[in-house]
Each structure stands twice: as C-alpha cells, then as structure tokens.
Design a protein that fits this description.
Number of domains: 1
Number of helices: 1
Strand content: 15-25%
Shape: elongated
Structural class: alpha/beta
Distance between the termini: 43 Å
Helix content: 10-25%
Length: 72
C-alpha cells in the first residue's frame, strides 16, 4: 500500500510567504489565510504562493475572516 503524506496548516493570516512548508502529497490550508478578510489582493497573493507549492493536491477551506466575494 502506498503512503500519502498530508500537510495541514491554518491561521497564517497573511504570513504564508514566510512559512517553510514540508513536502507532501496533499497540502491542506484549513482557513484564515487572510489578514483583513476583505482585500482581493490578499486572495491573489495567497493563490500565487499556493501555486508555487510542490504538493500534487491542494485543498483550501475558508474560515472566520475569509469571508470574501469576487465579482463574477
């Protein structure tokens, strides 16, 4: 049986760029990645950072402050 390495982080509050995230197969961010919760630039910055992570699968959950909406 193959092993799957799951990395779970949360509550980075805009400080994700300074993290050293371990390698793994799945990266889960369990919420609160934003500082203010309503700035589209925070979403873009986080998404760019997330795209540079080496994990084959990424899951992001929004929680508490991450109540945002983008125009359609």
């Amino acid at each position: 049986m193959a092993r799957v390495r799951i990395i779970c982080i949360s509550d980075t509050h805009g400080q994700h760029a300074g993290l050293r995230v371990p390698d793994g197969d799945i990266l889960i961010h369990a919420g609160d990645f934003m500082t203010y919760g309503n700035a589209p630039r925070e979403i873009i910055d986080f998404n760019t950072w997330l795209g540079h992570q080496p994990h084959a699968h990424k899951i992001v959950s929004r929680v508490l402050k991450n109540f945002f909406s983008l125009p359609p």
